[in-house]
């Protein structure tokens, strides 16, 4: 039986500091790509259900260990891309990801797991576990008045 715990390396592309299009400008506003993307991803993925371990390797690489019953590499990569992270787009990375995604999907189907989490669902659990307070600086009287 194949293990249900997977350990994968996620590689981010290096940001050169110049935006090529309006889409690049929009992405840089969502995630500061000049900063260390790997650290940001580690902090973001730390509270995700199904992530067992995260290791920061360097500015462009992290090592993630996750449970295949909860997450797949495809859902993690899709979530990071939707949040504006710039992932490595080399041919070798694309081939590796395609092979891993195929094998994980096949394993999940053989286990009878068919549902796949959306980006919102992946990060919602961590958001709900955090303590939240009222961020409105007005007094209670003014908040109720308006």
Q: Biggest sheet: strands, sense, closure?
A: 3 strands, antiparallel
The count of helical stretches stands at 6
Strand order, main sheet: write it out. Answer: 1-3-2
Number of domains: 1
Q: Helix and strand succession?
A: EHHEEHHHH
- Low-pLDDT residue spans: none
Give your account of this protein's structure.
This protein has 146 residues and is α+β, with helices and mostly antiparallel strands. It has a single domain (5-145), classed as 2-Layer Sandwich (Alpha-Beta Plaits), CATH 3.30.70. It has six helices and three strands; from the N terminus they run βααββαααα. It has helices spanning 22-30, 37-45, 73-82, 91-111, 119-129, 140-145; strands spanning 5-11, 51-58, 61-67. The protein is globular.
Features:
146 residues; alpha+beta; three-stranded antiparallel beta sheet; 3 strands; 45% helix
Provide a brief overview of the structure:
The chain is an alpha+beta fold and 146 residues long. The chain has 6 helices and 3 strands, in the order E-H-H-E-E-H-H-H-H.
Explain the layout of strands and helices.
Elements: E1 5-11, H1 22-30, H2 37-45, E2 51-58, E3 61-67, H3 73-82, H4 91-111, H5 119-129, H6 140-145
Antiparallel strand pairs: 1-3, 2-3
